[in-house]
Amino acid sequence: MFGIILLSIGTLIHVYVIWRASSVTFVNRLISRKFLAGIGIALWMAFLSARVFGHGGTGALATTLELFGMTWMAGLFLVCVSLLTMDLVTGFGLFFPRLNSSLRGWALIVSGVLCVVALVQGLRPPVVEKYEVGIPGLPNELEGMVLVAMSDLHLGSLLGEQWLEGRVSQVQALRPDIILLLGDLFEGHGQPQAEFLPILQRLSAPLGVWAVPGNHESHSGREKGISMFAGGNIGVLGNRWAEVRPGLVLVGVDDLTSIRGTAQEGDFITQAFSGRPPGTTIFLSHTPWQAEKAASFGARLMLCGHTHGGQLWPFGYLSRMVYPLLDGKHQVADMTVIVCRGTGTWGPRMRLWRPGEILLVTLRGEKM
């Protein structure tokens, strides 16, 4: 269903962009309308092929198709947003009729600049975002403890082994006390994860490496998704807790979107906290939902991801309607929430405006 919706929207955007671009004077001087329509049809067919044959496929051809299809669709979206904004300003040609062609031309130029910026941001390595979190009653032995967290790596055909090796080096250079993986490590289509496991096993910290599943780990079913972590040094917190040292408890849940709109909603958190020993509690969830419930169970820090911070402007405005805690640091009752905007990218290797990130969180015994 998602694929059908994406293809339908993509088709409409192709038609709209070609229609409006054909009304720009300097475009008409360079390319005839028939030739422009032919280009549009060819690019739409390439986009269709990328979705049908590239998505989830294996081999160089599938990778190339997917990379082109995702990048083209994201770029076309930015062109569509620029042209639509100009059409709304001019009332689709009713206002400033003499300037309409020029204004649409400027919209095309602006969208081209936005595409370049998005590509540069998407291809650059993730930055390290540093946070200090004050936790009342933090045991003295936990003062200054360093947590390093990554989310949404989306390892697969577009983000491969070399990219992952760079992220492992980044994390290990931070000398963390504990490493946390917040879901969507793998793209989840096909079976590409085997080659990544030896690299992930290089992650090490005194208090271990811990993970919670994301929605992409569930594409092939929960058990199969969790098995992606098997054979390594990664502890999976699927609706359970773990006391990693006296006075420090990690609680993790399966992805909360898997129970959206069902009678089970909230059961994951109740199950995960059941029988939890006393101590400073850190709650891990791929999706930044039900923070109030986690705080009521005594969690003092919640780490999550999933939203990508919107990834490609202006998607962030729509994402915030579903995920009010879109990215960054928030306070919910007595609990601090930090939402990672993603270490990797989903779909195109593009970001607008902020780059991917790795979280470095230092625990303090006082409010910061």
What's the gist of this structure?
The chain has 368 residues and is α/β, with parallel strands linked by helices.
List keywords for this structure.
single chain; 368 residues; alpha/beta; Purple Acid Phosphatase, chain A, domain 2; 2 domains; six-stranded mixed sheet; 11 helices
Q: What is the architecture of the largest domain at the second tier of CATH?
A: 4-Layer Sandwich
Mean pLDDT: 88
For the sheet with most strands, the description reads: 6 strands, mixed
- The order of strands across the largest sheet is 1-12-2-3-4-5
How many domains? The number is 2
Distance between the termini: 46 Å
Based on Cα principal axes, name the global outline: elongated
CATH topology of the largest domain: Purple Acid Phosphatase, chain A, domain 2
Strand content: 15-25%
Along the chain, the helix and strand elements come as HHHHHEEHEHEHEEEHEHEHEEE
- Count of individual beta strands: 12
Determine the structural class based on helices, strands and strand pairing. Answer: alpha/beta
Helix % is 25-40%
Instruction: Let me know the CATH homologous superfamily of the largest domain.
Output: Metallo-dependent phosphatases
What does this structure look like?
The chain has 368 residues and is α/β, with parallel strands linked by helices. The chain has 2 domains: 2-123, no CATH class; 127-364, Metallo-dependent phosphatases (Purple Acid Phosphatase, chain A, domain 2), CATH 3.60.21. Helix content is 39%, strand content 17%. The chain contains 11 helices and 12 strands. A 6-stranded mixed beta sheet has the order 1-12-2-3-4-5, with no helix packed on it. Strands 6-7-8-9-11-10 form a 6-stranded mixed beta sheet. Strand 2, helix 6 and strand 3 form a beta-alpha-beta unit. Helix 1 (2-21) runs antiparallel to helix 3 (33-54), helix 1 packs across helix 4 and helix 4 (60-89) packs antiparallel against helix 5. The longest helix is centred in the first third of the chain and has 30 residues, at 60-89. It is elongated and about 75 Å long. Residues 261-265 have low confidence and may be disordered.
